[in-house]
Amino acid sequence: MSTTLAPYTLPSGFVLPSIHSGPPFFTQQPSPSSRKIATDNWTRLILSYARHQKLFVLRTEDADIPGGEWDDVLSNPRINRKIRAPHLAAVIAHMVATDQAVYDPPNQTSAVLLYWRTPEEWAQVLYDWASSTGHLNTIMTFYEIVEPPVPSPLSDLPLPILRKAIAVLAKSSRAQVIAVADGEGVRFLTAPPGR
Amino acid sequence: MHRLGGVGIGAFDRQQQSKRGFAELSTELSQAQVEHLHLQLAQFRSALAHFASTNRDRIRQEPSFRHAFQQMCVSIGVDPLAGPRKGGWWAEMLNLGDWQYELGVQIVDVCVSTRERNGGLIEMTELIRLVSKLRGVGGDVITEDDVLRSIKTLKPLGAGYEVIDVGGGKKMVRSVPRELDADQAVMLAVAQEDGGRVTEQALVVRRGWKQERARAALDNMLRDGLCWLDEQDPEYGVSYWVLSAMRWDE
Fold first, then answer.
1. In whole angstroms, how far apart are CA B249 and each of A22, B17, B30, B136, B190?
2. Among A37, B12, B94, B242, which is least packed by CB within 10 angstroms?
């Protein structure tokens, strides 16, 4: 038997890294040094896949859903291996601890929102989008932002991330949160001079 | 009875005289010989230098030619690896010193950058493959011999690079200062036979180990990060993978 670890291109065009074709990658490593390497690789893989597929939510149950949206990453049918839920939970805990994900809703540890962009990066994307589409100085509802008629980089952005991004903008006086009739709204402000 | 020097007291003088004569003659002879040798050596050096400079490109480019040249140097007691400082002549003449150092640096590069996934142990052919890739040259331009020489040049750095023979014609290069015991060497060899995988069963069946010994040895390897655990092996249930014995294509 010869095992060659090679990248694998999924039909979606996403390239799985070599380590994904290594059988022990799917087992939680008992030695701390090996576990750290594996966890770092899992973290990178999950975030880059999420970015590629625009996935925001990861649950520990995803490990056990064949054919689910995470299946291509969480299992490798070519070597007959898949990550087990407790192992995935440990990876997720690491991602939360390093600010690369956040438990959502809070007070549970089985589902996270993935920060493949940080709230700061989302803030910039949001502000760039608002200024390039002529939404400065107008009031917009959150719903209008995450479900725009024309698909935007912000389509389907989970509200908790949107709120964080707006908070970042509010801090630098580039946005103002406003209560509107049907929920929450925001007004994007022209950047103050010097910014 | 005739003695060579005659008899009587005068014979002592004569004997001493001839002894001196012989001594002088011998000094003269050996002096002549030394001069002759010096001359020969000078000729040889210039011939070698001439050879080296006219064949520089071949020496640098053709592994077999380079090997033959190095063999020749070894057999006449010249070290082509003596670096720019120690034997500037060679480095200047061939640039081989630089070549060897350069290769050494690339070996370190590969060993360090792959340490994370192989625990500081890399298989020789894999090392050569990755170094070749780094240099952007074909598969057979750099030989095992070159790597061995370059690793020798790394020795003064005290980096602890070491070549380990794991049997079956396989060699591994260790880049972390860690002792490999005999059992670990055996496990590496077993892993080589099975694409990187080692199991308790393989050690028991193929090497005649007691199960406890196999388990303890595998646990040690696991702890050192030299191998990774696989709990989903369809054949054995649990197996161990020596990452350095696996082939990485990237």
1. 12, 82, 63, 15, 22
2. B12
Cβ–Cβ contact B10 with A under 8 A: no
Mean of pLDDT values over B188-207:
89
Tens of pLDDT, residue by residue over A129-163, are 999 988 888 888 898 899 888 888 999 999 999 99
Does residue A4 belong to the interface with chain B, where contact is any CB pair within 8 Å?
Answer: yes
Whether the domain at B81-178 and the domain at B181-250 fall into the same CATH topology: yes
If you measure CA to CA, which chain A residue comes closest to B241? A24
Residue A195: predicted pLDDT:
47
- So what CATH class is B181-250? mainly alpha
Identify which of A7, A18, A24 has the shortest CB distance to residue B230.
A24
- The identity of residue A58, as a single letter, is L
- Give alpha helix (H) positions in chain B: 10-54, 56-61, 63-75, 88-94, 96-118, 124-135, 144-154, 182-193, 200-207, 211-223
All structural domains of chain B with their residue ranges = 13-80, 81-178, 181-250
Query: With 60 as the cut, is the pLDDT of residue B88 above it?
Result: no
Residue indicated by tokens 């002894």: B19
* Contact across the interface for A27 and B229, Cβ inside 8 Å: yes
Q: In terms of Cα–Cα distance, which of A23, A57, A39, A11 is closest to A157? A: A57
Q: Are strands B170-174 and B162-167 parallel, antiparallel or unpaired?
A: antiparallel
Rounded CA separation B210/B98 (Å): 50
Q: Domain A119-188, CATH 1.10.10.10 — does that match?
A: yes
* Cβ distance of B229 and A30 shorter than 8 Å: yes
Residue boundaries of the structural domains of chain A? 8-114, 119-188
Is the pLDDT score of A76 beyond 90?
A: yes
Per-residue pLDDT, B31:
85
Give B-chain residues touching A81 at CB under 8 angstroms.
230, 232
Judged by CB atoms closer than 8 Å, whether chains meet at A31 and B223 is answered as yes
Q: Identify the closest residue of chain B to A76 by CA–CA distance.
A: B232
Interchain contact, B229 vs A24, CB within 8 Å: yes
Proportion of chain A above pLDDT 90, given as a percent: 71
What's the CATH architecture for A8-114?
Orthogonal Bundle (1.10)
* Per-residue pLDDT reduced to its tens digit, B148-193: 888 887 777 666 788 888 777 788 888 876 677 788 888 888 888 8
Q: What pLDDT sits at residue A123?
A: 94
A8 in contact with chain B, both atoms CB, cutoff 8 A: no
CATH number for the segment(s) B81-178? 1.10.10.10
Q: Are A15 and A9 in contact (CB under 8 A)?
A: yes
Contacts of A25 in chain B (CB under 8 A): 228
